[in-house]
Design goal:
Elements: H1 2-27, H2 34-41, H3 45-51, H4 55-79, H5 84-101, H6 103-115, H7 134-148, H8 157-170, H9 183-198
Amino acid sequence: MENKQYLIAEARREQIIKASIEVLTDIGYSSTSLSKIASKANISTGLISYHFSGKEDLMRNTLMYLVQQERAFIKEKVEQKQTYMEKLMVFIEAGLAYQGTKRGNNIALLEIVFNGRTPDNVPYYLVEIDHEDELNVLLKEILYKGQESKEFGDFDPQVIAIVIRGAISGSMSLPQYENKLNLEDYSEKLVKSILKMIQ
């Protein structure tokens, strides 16, 4: 019975978080309110207050949810591959695919990072993180192990990891409605460029 209650509570929390993402994407952080989120989720504001202590708490949990979604999406694809070259290629492709297909998630994440604050009133983008982002750790591990196994050539894994992550997050600024450089084209060209750097 207790387990069932927990699952219901978790499902409700996720419903509220998903509504938050939609509202953040539609109207931005400063216009987002618990009442607008409640309206989007078709629930009462009181129900949100039962699960979260206020807007900041909800935004903090939404941010964690968004980070976990991207991480799970990429890790699952990487773990299916055998060689480090395949793992690296799929890391890049999955990262770009996530940016392209989950555009709302990325907009919501940026809204929180640049407008939200921690309980100590520090803007999220200025927060000193005491542990490295799991996707960075995964990417560097692929690069180091690829070098150890002689699949890759000689380069600085730290620098290449920054280049790759930057190119993936930069893809969000690709023009959405113009055909100058669509995501598939961008993905193909990025993979070719990275291949040149690592071989």
